[in-house]
Design brief:
mainly alpha, 3 helices, single chain, elongated, 110 residues
């Protein structure tokens, strides 16, 4: 298996497992989470597409390290998995830390 798709897929799976088994913030059930993912893709596709377009790429990948699957505007599919993992982990940690702070404030006030 090529390194970049393997790492991107592994990171996405790890983030999903962390959310479902450890942090349990419920972000996957939240409409705002999914809207934020749409917004991220709305910006990612034109920017990443322009950077990686095959006609005049700015970022060039080693074909031996990628899947070579480019479903939307020459963007590698592993880029979507990697972006999903990064954005989801940030949002999970944001919600989780906010809940901890709220619990701490409630405990201190009592």
């Amino acid at each position: 298996m090529n390194i970049y798709p393997a790492m991107a897929t592994t990171s996405a799976i790890i983030v999903i497992v962390l959310e479902l088994a450890v942090f349990r913030t419920g972000v996957f059930r939240s409409v705002t989470y999914w809207l934020s993912m749409v917004i991220v893709l709305g910006f990612m596709i034109p920017v990443d597409g322009w950077l990686t377009k095959l006609t005049a790429p700015i970022v060039i990948y080693n074909d031996n390290d990628t899947s070579a699957i480019r479903p939307i505007w020459d963007i590698l599919i592993e880029e979507y998995a990697y972006a999903f993992a990064l954005i989801t982990l940030v949002l999970v940690m944001w919600v989780w830390s906010g809940r901890r702070e709220t619990q701490r404030s409630t405990t201190e006030a009592a």
